[in-house]
Queue: 4 jobs
Job 1
Amino acid sequence: MPLTREKILAGLRAALEPLEHVYALWEGGAAAFNRVDAWSDIDVMVDVEDERAAEVMALVEQTLAALSPITLKYETPQPAWHGHLQTFFQLQAAGPYLVVDLAVIRHSNPKKFLEPEIHGQALVHFDKRGVVAGAPALDPAALREQIAARRATLRVLFPLFQPLTTKELQRGNLMEAVAFYNGYTLRPLVEVLRMRHCPARYNFHTRYVYYDLPPEAVGRLERLFLPAGLADLTAKQAEAEAWFWELLEAE
């Protein structure tokens, strides 16, 4: 029988909840948006006493290994940008999609990925210290300042880097042109679209784009993401540039 999501989570809870130095266990990702399907991984956060973080991660690995052989494991290099210990586990009995993405969060670290506007509604398995309920809310004023600063930066960077695409188009180098187009034309275009429709996740690029943007914007973006050749890419870049400036100047 394949190892299910429920069995993995039950095993983690049974191992961690009795420990006094483990304060909370919750899920983010698809579970936090009620969008779990057959291809969803498991995004798990564990809040622990600061000095016991490495010990808890070792216990997590032991717990998962008891459920199934671990076929792949990747530890995020430390210090990680978010300050947590984070390890990805692929379990033989769970298949390639049900990867366990587990972060051990030191209790003193305020960055817990709990703002519902960004990360959804955390699915709590246990919370002994009110970690989830006590998480700070998103600061709208700070978000507005971040977006204003980013828009000012994009106003300079966008026109600065468009020639990277056009010069490769002139040279007939399709692959290089497509790479620059994706990085320097489409990525900022998606960013300003998000600023309009889902500002809390303005920097998520295409992550959740099918849920965060209106269908008409998604349909137009899909077409722009699929150039058929040099001539088509030339036309699509012109359209994407015009759309970017329309959005930027409208705010």
Job 2
Amino acid sequence: MQLDKNQLEYLNNIAKEAVVEAGKIIQSMVHTHKRLNDKKGGHSVASQVLTEADLKAQDVILKKLQPTIVEFDLGWLGEESEDDKSRFRKDYFWCVDPLDGTLAFTEGYPGYAVSVALISKQGDPVLGVIYMPFTDTLVSSLEPSLTVAENADKKLCLYCDKSFLRHPKYYLIFRQMDNYAKSIGLRGFKVISGAGAVVNAISVFQHSDACYFKYPKPGNGGGSIWDFAATVAIGNSISAWVSDSKGQKMDLNRKESAYMNHTGILYASNKELAEFIIRLGEEL
């Protein structure tokens, strides 16, 4: 089955309704959320945190998308539900992160979002929708509305997870990035951490000199398919640089695992910056 333009627009509208409805519930729980037993299998503090808001948001989204699953014979992959492997059997599957940036949400930091993507069996995102409840911002790959802000402080910016600050070669990476920034006429390099993957990626799209990346690592982790699927779709729609850390297309339907540690990820505001980050990774 090949979805046509009208069908994608129909699914896009339903996905937008779903993320906004879930986001409103999340935002209403900012000061009243309950942290549940942490999830097993997480390899960072952020990946282990689970709240009542995560579960309520996914329930809302699934209820909204369920009729489309039946009508279009779609698969499902949600962060807070078991992978039923339907993503390998169906032509397309919904990929849902009901509350990306749960740790930021629990800390009251404006770095969380609701993320829904529709991905083909081949791993290509054909639709991505995100909603950031703390700013009431809705973005869709079919109707991107992002604007690039002026780089007021003239610094190269790295948006990253807090776990990146503990990377064994963090200080080497920082020095190399700082040197690169100065070589292209900027005043230096700065790091902004604390947000989830979705907000980090969107922040790159809205900045003229910014990046967000994770290099490969041996153990499971590095984020999962649902952390990146929607922003890959959005990035592709605005011709932003989105790839794995080696410059290849991100694998969004990997059979071995839903984790992305095997190749890492890379978002960059321009090609030259992306190529530098790729070379740096090869040298580490």
Job 3
Amino acid sequence: MKRSWIIVLLVCTACSFTGSAQVADTATYLSSIKLEMQKKWPANRTINLVYHGHSVPSGYYTRGEVHTLGSYPFLALKLIKEKYKYAVINTILTSIGGEQSEKGQTRFDTAVLTMRPDVIFIDYALNDRNIGLERARSAWAKMIEAALKKNIKVVLLTPTPDSRVDILAPDNILEQHARQIRELAATYHVALVDSYLLFKRLKESGEDLEKYMAQNNHINELGHQLVAAEIAKWFN
């Protein structure tokens, strides 16, 4: 009888853990930030949105050209400001073209947390193919944990497309990184912008993804608009 009760307890504990491991709720996760953004002067304050990652959030299109105002961080700002007309919002880029998450993690304290962010967005998966899943997971986890220790909200982004990778191929390398990022979002109960799934569904519906690409691994303004719209949903 005692053994049976132990088994039941273990099963219930496992179920409870599984149930708690889920991505944050879109409606409530940023509630405190949204409340701050509704305040009028003089009760309001500056809200800092920090985007940490590689060339895509930095705004690189093609031939080294950087289209800052055509990148998803600033396109998202425009959408967010349409709703929060009294808010003072800083969009801050700590992203570096060509960087992967291990390097991003080494400068997380000095380059990101010093910006006093209210929300941190992390987008490294395209370049994390160079270091592999295990090393990438460790770096992402360290950044997430460092942010959460300071009660900073975190939004994880799965990769945007690379035209050299068949987005519909089962278990392709970007799919694997996207899956890992979803798992991290669920494990840490933070926000998720699933760019990869968004573009995958477009492809499944018959869309030609080349219309969203500036070059093989960089989306153009149309592609950035799609990601920005997904980010803005967290502020609705």
Job 4
Amino acid sequence: MPLVPDPSAPVRLLDPAEPEYRHGLELFLAGTDEKALTHPFLSDLAAALPRRRVFLDIGAGEGRTTRYVSRFFERTVVIEPSEDMRRAVLRACPDARVIGTPIGATHLDVRADLALCSHVLYYVPRPDWLSTTLRMLSWVAPGGELVLMLQNPGNDTMRMVRHFTGTHFDLADLEAELLRSGDDMVADTVMTTLRTRFRTDVPADALTVAEFLLNDPSLRRMEPRPTRGDLERYVVTRFTEPTGALSWSCSHDILRVRRAPAAR
């Protein structure tokens, strides 16, 4: 029996302000070990910083990671254009200063010792990645770090996205651009990959999460969009375990960009 009532219907376009988007996000977070692995990584990184005055979270989403990392810092500043997500961040971090403008329209009067930009570059046009990253790095104090997170392009999730949309994201390409740029702000870069997975025992939940993950900006430009039946066949065929559970890799690339110390 199909998991969707109309397999010929196109994959849904999900609005972050709507319940369907939040439901997909919650199911993904409930089934992945992403937070269990990324939070200790960020904790160790924060502990190694020379100063922990300001934490800047750029595109904080629902605020769980913001809340976790903020406890290591004196102040927390959040940039989150989505009104719905801003409300979630303030519930998670009532003391945070929350700014509602997009990255390109934001002007900060503070410098962060740690700035985090997690899963935001999907929504930035690829030609603008370098300029956007350098803009974010300008908000980092000398000697501080900007941390960028995206899914690894070789994981199961990104192979699924490429299969249906043709979209390719790779932080390694951005790292190479940063090093070639010769910008004086860039002291050095470090790339790390965390091997995370998603797993659920409920096939319908797996399809909901797959549809959520497929909602990168390129999906909105596709005509016609892939059908929900096509997505169901892909997910069930490729990700079903012998136990009947569904599982796929969603490994994360983490690019650390350290801002050059102040000149003496």
